[in-house]
Amino acid sequence: MRFGSYGRMVLAAAMLLCCGTESGHAGASEVLAPGYRPAPDTEEGGLWAQMDRQEAELKVSPALVTDEALNTYVRKIVCELAGDYCASLRVYIVDEANSNAFTAPNGMVVVWTGLLLRCQNEAELAFVLGHEITHYLKRHSLLNLQKEIQTNGSFAGLTAAGGIGRLFEQVAAGRIASHSRDQEREADAGGFDLVVDKGYDPGQGAFFMANTAEEEEANPNRTKQAAYRASHPDMKERLTVLTKRADDIGAQPHANIVGAEAYRAAIGPHRAAWLEEEFNRGEFAESVAMIKQLMKDEPQSGELQYYLGEAYRRRNANGDLKNAMTAYQAAIAAKDAPNAAHRGLGLVSLKANQKTAARDEFQKYLSLVPMASDRATVEYYLATMGGSP
Amino acid sequence: MRIRILLLPVFCGALAACQSFQGEKSVYVGDGITIDPQIEWTSAAGPRAAIPGLGLERLLFLTERDTSSVWTIDGLGLDELVFLTGVTAGDPLFRSQGVAPKDMVRYNTTMLPDDVMDMIAGTLGKAGDQQLRTSALRPVPFGTVTGFRFDLAYTTQDGLQMKGTALFAQRGKKLDVILFLAPSEYYYDRYAPTVEKIFSSVQVPDVPATKPAS
Question: What is the ipTM of this complex?
Fold first, then answer.
């Protein structure tokens, strides 16, 4: 499922491999039965075997997030949505800054940390997972495989794939066949039904999609949609449909679970690291937009203010020096300000030729983090300003 | 990474760009900089023009500048000493396959050492490396001027855990970067002492280093 910047966040890539065998599956249009596994000598069985091998590699990947509490939390949401299919789905959280989630035909559910960073509550994540579970239940990948083989005689999308890392690269680049527009519509509808059935706020899916669109549109360098996007329903259409369905339900009694606090508690220990990794995408305009979205729910967060300052400082566009300064100052004024906010404010003050402020902030940073690994560099800045560390 | 390793013999068999340094005490690496290689290295990639049409910019960190090169001992992907010298304002460190040039992070002369470190990390991130962490930015000698070092760790798209160390200096209006990258298991530690000596051997003409903006 694509939930972010072009060429990177992908909407449910099909993850198909060339099987090269004649069709012998149990009927692709049928919904899977719980516990279903295709016979190994069928087209679908070959596909599953390929994905099983990818999954085995993923299990030992250094990119796997192994924090048991976080895995348990996400797995619980998947299981509640999937019901009888819980045992058929296995969740893997992967340390990858781009925003994405996808489900392989064999039941491997992959969630990238970039997606977890962007979701603001449990209901949003549940919608995304419900969308992916629907792809799995409806066997969309198998349908795509059959179509590909029917058209080309084989499926070339991943025949040269070199393991799980290359698979992710293919997924991120949208080079693997994506689902059809109708399949995406079906997955949106199915995901919506699943989250509503479990009492989640029906409006959060549309909220998430709107934030995704806003982040994407914030990138001035985005000149084209990724290839896979051509097969996707227009974002406006998806938003309209999801919003209307949510409004229809809004008039009825409903639990409206949002789960913001539980969600923040689950991802809280990881968020700072994920934000650091976010910047290595080099899409600072998107980072600024995304952090501002998170701040709507957490306006007092010193952590978010600090990373907003970092995003501005690294983007370094016109006005960003001042923007960064304001954000760092807000971070420092907050209760949970990271100590590094003083260093950040020192850096932008130095660049703005505000030496007194820079000196003060650098000295505060060193007093708060006397064993900082960059202490010598901060002392260098102080020395170049003519002050003593 | 497997591709990188396999390709080295192909390059060195076919290209004049492949050159070994053995027994030389002073090798020019661009922008007036010379270093002592310490041991035998093979220059696996030089100026982009030397290997036209291969489309492997990302793998080899090739750039359009004549002063960029990649050396290796055991093979690309196993150990890489990357020289990105003479980077001028508006330049990216290197071109990356699949990334539009305008999307690459570009150097500007007002960058502080922290900004340069972020630029190097961001460039590697754009090239596809993941879970990238930088640490221990510190001033060190770069020949007779002040340069900076930092350490990095990341995971390649193939899932290989890598370590690296970077040395850079802002001299005049240009940026010079020397990067050593190797798998954290075995290769990095094996050659880290040699790389330390290489970094210490850097010699530059007497051009004052750029000071932070003030």
Answer: 0.82
